[in-house]
Amino acid sequence: MGELKRSTIIFKSLYYYEKMLGLCPFIIHKDTLKMSYLGIIYNLAISVLYSICFILIIECRFELRLPRETTLTITMDALGLLFQYCTVVCSWLTVIFQYNRLKSIFNDFKKVEELAKTLNINVYENRLKKLRNISMRLLIINAFYLAVFLADHYTLSLYKKFQEQASAWIWYNVPKIVLYNVGAIFLELMLVLKHNFRALNKLLRYYFSTKTDEFLFRNFSTTSKAFIKLHKIGQFHESLSDLLEHITSFFSLSILFAIIATFIHSFLDIYAVYQYLTYRRMCEVGDFSIYSLNIIWMMTKFLTLYFICGVPDSVCTEACALTA
């Protein structure tokens, strides 16, 4: 009971936290999703406010020139900020204007779970524990972003011009945590699908192996039980494929903007590190701190790109794996 209570507290904390970020403008009631009109108004309001903040930030960015920055790097950074803004606002608007698709994803998961039970696939055992682990990973990602963001903001505050713009940058940078939450949720859903496809492939390998002839799968056309079993397996695979298509379609635009923004800022981070190695100005605390943070951001973005590209690819590989 203690573990159940802890898991429930963690899950509810994450649920209301994501609500605050604008990623859950709905209510979960008796295993069903219901759109909240208050959530819709909230998402529209923060989208408008963030758009105004973005316009101010673009003006501030062209006025702010950090050491050894050029007009080209400032312009590229502004372009990266644009795609980050698109990711955040697109995520807020997607969850309200594509509610029906989101609801279908929710229902598809319930359908997949029911089919898994009929096939005795145990991927949904200890579901509460798995939800707790997912929640913990999301909370760790958020804590990491906030820690690096605060360190970055404090370091940049050493420059007088940034101090004048500090409040505007806080209002713009804090909501960017939505970008990492969307990416993390997308990856977690991909991993769930991967485990389902892997369990299905394992089941098929077992049925078509020489170790079993319980249902005569090698001659299933003459056995009704085998035919029914294979029909359910086909339904399970079809449901997983539909779920994969719905999830990728739902997240596609936000992930696209996020990848473009990550590519642009990765190149800028590489350029900043190159400058640091070229000038070797380790004696100045400000420069050393900025370049150290650039390395952290660069590694974070490389890992983000690796997982965003690698995990969906592994899901497709598992879904198309030869099981005979």
From TrEMBL:
Alphabetical list of Pfam families matching this protein: 7tm_7
Coiled-coil boundaries: none
Keywords: Cell membrane, Membrane, Receptor, Transducer, Transmembrane, Transmembrane helix
Keyword Transmembrane helix on entry: yes
Localization terms from the record: Cell membrane
InterPro entries cross-referenced by the UniProt entry: 7TM_chemorcpt
Recorded superkingdom: Eukaryota
GO CC field: plasma membrane
BP terms from Gene Ontology: sensory perception of taste; signal transduction
Transmembrane stretches, start-end: 37-58, 78-97, 138-157, 177-193, 247-268, 288-308
Membrane topology: Multi-pass membrane protein
Function as written in the Swiss-Prot or TrEMBL entry: Gustatory receptor which mediates acceptance or avoidance behavior, depending on its substrates.
Name by which UniProt lists this protein: Gustatory receptor
Lineage: Eukaryota, Metazoa, Ecdysozoa, Arthropoda, Hexapoda
